[in-house]
From TrEMBL:
Family according to the record: Belongs to the ThrE exporter (TC 2.A.79) family.
Parts forming coiled coils: none
GO molecular function: transmembrane transporter activity
InterPro entries referenced in this protein's UniProt entry, alphabetically: ThrE-like_N, ThrE_Dicarb/AminoAcid_Exp
Protein name listed in UniProt: Threonine/serine exporter family protein
GO cellular component, one term: plasma membrane
PANTHER family: SUCCINATE TRANSPORTER SUBUNIT YJJP-RELATED, UPF0442 PROTEIN YJJB-RELATED
Subcellular location: Cell membrane
Organism per entry: Alkaliphilus pronyensis
Membrane topology, from the record: Multi-pass membrane protein
Residues covered by the Threonine/serine exporter-like N-terminal domain: 13-252
Length: 264
């Protein structure tokens, strides 16, 4: 394999890993994808190391001559949750390994996956609202509380989307989301006595709970990727604290203004 093709393959492998890591894939899955892609083209030595914020790959065509070794590093700054892209890259890597797909064609496939648009914000908000409303039903909510949680969740989803578009950081975004959920719940519970504040808030903040981050933190830790596991756990904890701070700040502010009275 020529050095040019070696570099092109390495760029393609790190691009596939970048798409997966940026969209919520586990560390071991990203490393496995890198190793599969490189070893499928007769690299005797492949070593990959992935953390939540970076990808490191070293390959060698001969396995003995260190002069032929190439190392690439890729910094990951932003992450979202889009498991559809993770599944598509995972499927692509299997097809690439089992065939002799040209690298240029593989790059075109990856670019198509990377540029795939997510579900519209309207669709995300509506179904997120339905999920939040159904979760409030699990807590014993009535019909009015179901619709209150649904409305509040939709409002929170739209607001968080706008803040992310404006490049607000994770901490501020989730504080704002938690605060908005609490404020909307207070207003709705003030309008009707049968709407309980706690059920609406708990249901509405479900769209912000870092479920994927917590799951990946546990899976990475069990797999032995302790650095990534701790990083994902810290990220999940930061999000949870942000949500709690936003909700608590609004509730405490309302108590202060109303002299210790909340519309429970």
């Amino acid at each position: 394999m020529s050095k040019v093709n070696q570099k092109k393959l390495l760029v393609m492998a790190i691009y596939a890993a970048e798409i997966m890591l940026k969209n919520g894939a586990e560390t071991y899955r990203v490393e496995d994808t890198i190793n599969r892609i490189c070893r499928s083209r007769d690299f005797p030595y492949v070593e990959s190391y992935v953390t939540l914020t970076g990808i490191f790959i070293s390959v060698d065509t001969d396995g003995e001559d260190l002069n032929d070794m190439i190392t690439y590093v890729k910094r990951i700054n932003k992450r979202v949750i889009n498991l559809n892209k993770v599944a598509e890259v995972n499927d692509f890597s299997r097809r690439f390994v089992e065939s002799r797909m040209p690298i240029d064609e593989a790059m075109a496939v990856l670019k198509a996956i990377d540029t795939t648009l997510p579900y519209s914000i309207t669709l995300q908000a509506v179904f997120g609202g339905l999920a939040s409303g159904c979760f409030s039903l699990l807590l014993g909510a009535n019909v009015l509380e179901f619709f209150a949680a649904l409305f509040t969740s939709i409002l929170v989803t739209y607001s968080i989307h706008k803040l992310k578009q404006a490049d607000f950081n994770l901490f501020i975004t989730n504080i704002a989301g938690g605060g908005l959920a609490a404020f909307s719940a207070i207003v709705l519970s003030s309008l009707h006595a049968s709407v309980n504040l706690d059920k609406v808030i708990i249901g509405a903040i479900m769209v912000m709970v870092p479920g994927v981050a917590m799951t990946n933190a546990i899976r990475d830790s069990i797999a032995g990727d302790l650095v990534s596991g701790l990083a994902r756990g810290a990220e999940a904890l930061l999000i949870a604290i942000s949500i709690a701070f936003g909700v608590g700040f609004i509730l405490q502010g309302w108590i202060f203004l109303k002299g210790g009275i909340l519309p429970w």
